[in-house]
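Quick one before lunch.
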Amino acid sequence: SPGWPGLIEAYRSRLPVSDTTPVVTLQEGATPLVPARELSRRTGCEVYLKVEGANPTGSFKDRGMTMAITKALEEGAQAVICASTGNTSASAAAYAARAGMTCAVLVPQGKIAMGKLAQALVHGAKLLQVDGNFDDCLALASKLAIDYPVSLVNSVNQFRIEGQKTASFEIVDVLGDAPDVHCLPVGNAGNITAYWQGYREYAADGTASRTPRMFGFQAAGAAPIVNGQVVENPSTIATAIRIGNPASWTKALAARDESGGRIDAVTDRAILSAYRLLARSEAVFVEPASAASVAGLLQVADAGELEPGQRIVCTVTGNGLKDPEWAISGAPAPVTVAVDAAAAAAQLGL
Ligand code: F0G
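Model of the F0G complex:
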């Protein structure tokens, strides 16, 4: 088919596929790398946004899911399962539908955004709300995958990481080299692991001259890696990263330490402030969890710990339309007017 073929075809030689692998794709990847003028001004750096909400189901999960579902199909699986704070379930449901597979999803009851729930349901997933948090859902999904004929497609599945590492490839391909710093939100810590793997692979074969420092940011009420201990009852408005015991904890620490980076906490207030700044000043509508990368960047800059002049990429992981609640609650209620130009003009202050 014409145009961008999806990330497996685009990076075939760097992924664990063969000529006979039955590729399942929605032509994910090739997402925009948008220069961020206001963030660049505020930090004195050259800041870009990797807009992962532009993927087919509206999040970076599609990069991992094209690989995970492709490999599950290749291995003859008929059903897949995942635990999710919402985006993984939306993506798994879509790619499983594309592959003609059954998809089961376990989500924390009452703690996933409406848009994500809608996506899982419309693509035909079998969805259970679990009376517990994400960590409970993941433990349950992992157990089911051991005891029943169903493949786990959470990021503990290495094929997910393989797919997600391609975001780093795209960034280097566009910028001509790795950035100085890469910022991203951290939840279960699969994505920071994947980016770090991608950057390392490009540096190892000379496609990039270096690797960036990896800056990860957790929500303050769900910051086990920052605190150095499991959070039993994680709490944040950024439901996508409401995780108290990340599966890839050790790998996130390795990404931080090997890259000379940092993993810090950002408050919900800072996340919402970055969320509004992104929408108003950069015109990029993201979901709250995605704004953690930008909140973190601004926090480091405000602390005077960011050397000016650096090239920085912030991944914004998910589309704002998935979780519009915070966009609406933070804005004045719309006024209703008659079909009357003078009345409309008066209300608009024209
Ligand atoms: N941003 C968004 C929008 C997410 O949905 C997630 C994770 C993250 C960031 C964090 O990425 O887990 O690789 O560190 N969402 C998972 C899910 C947990 O179930 O959709 P991570």
